[in-house]
UniProtKB/TrEMBL annotation:
UniProtKB keywords: Carbohydrate metabolism, Glycosyltransferase, Pyridoxal phosphate, Transferase
Pfam families reported in the protein's UniProt record: Phosphorylase (PF00343)
Function of the protein: Phosphorylase is an important allosteric enzyme in carbohydrate metabolism. Enzymes from different sources differ in their regulatory mechanisms and in their natural substrates. However, all known phosphorylases share catalytic and structural properties.
Name of the featured protein: Alpha-1,4 glucan phosphorylase
PANTHER family according to UniProt: GLYCOGEN PHOSPHORYLASE (PTHR11468), GLYCOGEN PHOSPHORYLASE, LIVER FORM (PTHR11468:SF3)
Highest taxon, organism lineage: Bacteria
Organism lineage: Bacteria, Bacillati, Actinomycetota, Actinomycetes, Micrococcales
Top-level EC class: transferase
EC number: 2.4.1.1
Species this protein is from: Microbacterium mcarthurae
Family membership noted in the UniProt record: Belongs to the glycogen phosphorylase family.
Length: 834
């Protein structure tokens, strides 16, 4: 460098504009138009007259971004200056839904933008419809993470959401002959206006290799000599709070090959091999695993988990904390919340950073680590608890495996001190399982390391303490707590249901959006005929709106006067979509066999939304059956106008936002003791659907709050389920004893929905009759009785609407704002920074 050229750090800005903080464009229609046109011209490179809708959508998104930018930059700068604690939410999934509407709402720009675009001759709804939602999650767990970061921003809590920027999110579902086919979700295809790459803040993440010990001034230390590495490039997304001017960050990592990767590892001079090597590295963030609940033990998935967690920890320690930060004070500045076991490899990673890299003593590092993590469990299914084979983990992360062994040794010593040399107990509690293969039990590691362990509904937390983690709960009762899930009222009421929102605001004022308990005020109107009428009119309008959405995408409709009965959730045996189908088949059979006069039947539209994991054969049979039943029922003139089955493909957040406000009946029919919480149940109740449900997950709390009169309870309780197992469950007994059940099953088995082919649904039928792990047959009778109560209740529209209003009024507890307050009080101990 020539002598007189100043280095970058010596250049100091002198221009006044360079010294001023970033300013948002003026919050006026003119200001918006100007900025929009600028973005169209300078970012998209088109004139208004030559732009297509996608250009316009991108320019609109860019404009909304510009308005939020000043606050975002400010909040990011503040993050390292402030002394307060940051919540680092570690989640492999964020099921965000569309961004445009939410960000317009948060920034109070909805009206301005609508008018500004109208003045440019553009209908904003046309652009809204173009946005492809980032489907970076499977279901409840991913959507919960999205609700939580929305609430944390709205409550001004310093938060960074950390995750993975999958190039392909959850697959697109299509149906061919009633069967699911999966298509790749290329959500980035048309550009991604909501995220900002920061290659300068990339982290190098290592894998493989070996460990070695060395002498460090008389102290023996260990270091990891990895074999290959990959760059983690952060992409930042804005997480605006609602009307509070705060913008938090969601930082999603993308895997990019390093040069070192092909030079060192595939050191060959073979160009083709080195490009192939790049592809190998970049595969890490290529695709979201579409499995929910059954972990596959796939190496790439462990790579994903370590990749994003290691990058996040390094990012926080190196970039967010100020230089020279005293790491013994780490617990005062951060809590890493583990969203299920997927990020648990972060525990040995933080130990490695503190001990191997920062030279800390083991015990000191462990004390810090235990304060910095907390663990949320989202399941009760034993097969859903992640384990990694020692083989695989040791090959991919040899140093981490050593650390896990050492954590386990110390832990088992503690167990012996507490409970004596009970070898059975030691084997049961060990972080290392021996059968069917040597493996690391990630839930146990999380429980040992975490400052707190929580379930996601009262019943779930109780069952964790009593069953899944009972020995740990005995050892550390104070570690265990509950935080019942919640959902964001901004997206799932204010945005999804604008007409009900207007009615509520006119009745109670606007405060409910951030203080959902205020909905209680609606109780006083449940008996007010005028309010009821308006409420009913909103529901009817929402049904018509949904009908238009379905007509446009599938050519199907919902008829006026139909009870809309919805079951929207991942397809899983424990959730019992089969029970729902048996009900439909039975209702159909009752009419066509003349046992019930058709004119006595309450018209109903059954609506399903569900994706099955691509490798889950039984779930795919169930999808096929739903579609097959729908095809027959919808074509049969004998039930026309009475029964209809709709199964729009590719259920996602966007479709949920149309379905939920229209629903009358919410199906929450899992076998008691299997659904950790559920969150769709909350969204539906909040939008005035009545629940038909078992005493499972958060249904228990919904029923307690809305009252037995406004909830259709059926089925065995969890203790009754246990008792039936203990006594020996024989599903065929129920088949023989219940005529309605027998007729429904026989109809399917006889090929009534498969063109006479008895083989098509044979696997499903024999599974029900001879296995039925989730006891659909045992609960069938009780379910049908409850459905009869539903029909009777719906016939009295006045009473039904009253119940629906009470459901809304009493659902305030299920705001994710409340859930965040509970996490803050019971687990995080962080405070707002305004
Ligand atoms: C492939 C491994 C795997 C295992 C479990 C992937 C994803 C999971 C998740 C834990 C599945 C999930 O979404 N669980 C749901 O979490 C919601 C939020 O707490 C709860 O409301 C649901 O009851 C629970 O099923």
């Amino acid at each position: 460098m020539p002598e007189n050229t100043p280095s970058a750090s010596e250049l100091r800005p002198t221009h006044p504009l360079a010294l001023a903080p970033v300013a948002a464009p003026p919050a006026s229609v003119d200001g918006f138009v100007r900025r929009f046109l600028q973005n169209l011209n300078f970012d998209q490179g088109v004139a208004l007259s030559t732009s297509d809708d996608n250009d316009r959508y991108l320019a609109l998104a860019g404009t909304v971004r510009d308005y939020l930018m000043a606050r975002w930059l400010d909040d990011q700068a503040q993050q390292s200056r402030q002394q307060s604690k940051t919540v680092c939410y570690l989640s492999a999934e964020y099921l965000l839904g569309r961004q445009l509407d939410n960000n317009l709402l948060a920034a109070r720009l909805t009206e301005i933008a609508t008018e500004a675009l109208a003045q440019c001759g553009i209908d904003i709804d046309d652009l809204r419809a173009l946005e492809i939602e980032p489907g970076l999650g499977n279901g409840g767990l991913g959507r919960l993470a999205a609700c939580f970061i929305d609430s944390l921003a709205t409550m001004s809590i310093p938060t960074i959401g950390y995750g993975i920027r999958y190039e392909y999110g959850i697959f697109r579902q299509a149906f061919a002959d009633g069967q699911q086919v999966e298509q790749p979700d290329a959500w980035l295809r048309l550009g991604s206006p909501w995220d900002f790459p920061h290659p300068e803040a990339a982290q190098t993440i290592s894998f493989g290799g070996r460990t070695e010990t060395y002498d460090d001034d008389g102290v023996e230390r260990t270091r990891w000599v990895p074999e290959w590495n990959v760059l983690a490039v952060p992409y930042n997304m804005m997480v605006p709070g609602y009307h509070n001017g705060r913008v938090n960050t969601l930082r999603l990592w993308r895997a990019v090959a390093t040069n070192a990767f092909d030079l060192h590892t595939f050191n060959s001079g073979d160009y083709v091999a080195s490009v192939r090597a790049q592809t190998f590295a970049e595969n890490i963030s290529k695709v979201l695993y579409p499995e929910d609940s059954t972990p596959q033990g796939k190496e790439l998935r462990l790579q994903q988990q370590y990749f994003f967690v290691a990058a996040s920890i390094a990012d926080f320690v190196e970039h967010v904390l100020p230089d020279g930060f005293d790491l013994t004070k780490l617990p005062e500045r951060v809590i890493f919340q583990l969203n299920d076991t997927h990020p648990v490899i972060g525990v040995p990673e933080l130990m490695r950073v503190l001990v191997d890299e920062k030279g800390m003593e083991w015990d000191a590092a462990w004390a810090i680590t235990q304060k910095c993590f907390a663990y949320t469990c989202h399941t009760l299914l034993p097969e859903a608890l992640e384990v990694w084979s020692v083989d695989l983990l040791g090959r991919l992360l040899p140093r981490h495996l050593e650390i896990i062994y050492r954590i386990n040794d110390a832990f088992l010593l503690e167990v012996r001190e507490r409970f004596g040399d009970d070898e059975m107990l030691i084997r049961d509690m060990s972080i290392i399982g021996e059968h069917p293969f040597r493996s690391v039990r990630m839930a146990y590691l999380a429980t040992v390391a975490g400052s707190k362990v929580n379930g996601v509904a009262e019943l779930h937390s109780q069952l964790l303490r009593d069953n899944v983690l009972k020995d740990f709960a005995r050892m550390w009762p104070e570690k265990f707590t509950n935080v019942t899930n919640g959902v964001t009222p901004r997206r799932f009421l204010r945005l999804a249901n604008p007409e009900l929102s207007t009615l509520i605001t006119e009745t109670l004022g606007a405060g409910w959006t951030v203080d959902l308990e205020r909905l209680r005020g609606l109780e006083a109107y449940a008996d007010d005929p005028e309010f009821r009428e308006r409420f009913a009119a909103v529901k009817a309008a929402n049904k018509r709106r949904l009908s238009r959405v379905l007509a446009a995408r599938d050519g199907t409709t919902i008829d006026d006067g139909h009870l809309l009965d919805v079951m929207i959730k991942r397809l899983h045996e424990y959730k019992r979509q089969t029970l729902k189908v048996l009900h439909i088949v039975s209702a159909y059979d009752e009419i066509v066999s003349g046992r019930v006069p058709v004119e006595k039947v309450q018209p109903r539209t059954f609506l399903f939304g569900a994706k099955a994991a691509p490798g889950y054969a039984m779930a795919k049979h169930i999808i096929h059956l739903i579609n097959a039943v729908g095809e027959v029922v919808n074509a049969d003139p004998r039930v026309e106008g009475r029964l209809k089955v709709l199964y729009p493909s590719n259920y996602n957040v966007t479709l949920a936002e149309s379905i939920i406000p229209a629903a009358d009946l919410s199906e929450q029919i899992s076998l008691a003791g299997k659904e950790a919480s559920g969150t769709g149940n909350m969204k539906l109740a909040l939008n005035g659907a009545l629940t038909i449900g078992t005493d499972d997950g958060a249904n228990v709390e919904i029923r307690q709050l809305v009252g037995d009169d406004n909830f259709f309870l059926f089925g065995m309780s969890e203790p009754e389920v246990e008792a039936l197992w203990a006594e020996g469950y024989r599903p065929a007994d129920f088949y023989h004893e219940d005529e309605r059940l027998r007729r429904a099953i026989d109809l399917i088995a006889a090929g009534a929905f498969s063109g006479g082919d008895r083989s098509v649904f044979e696997p499903l039928i024999s599974n029900l009759l001879y296995d039925d792990r989730f006891m659909a047959l045992a609960d069938f009778g009780s379910y049908l009785d409850a459905q009869e109560r539903v029909d009777a209740a719906y016939a009295d529209q006045d009473a039904w609407v009253r119940s629906a209003i009470l459901n809304v009024a009493r659902s305030g507890f299920f705001s994710s704002d409340r859930a965040m307050r509970d996490y803050l009080d019971r687990i995080w101990h962080a405070t707002p920074v305004h």
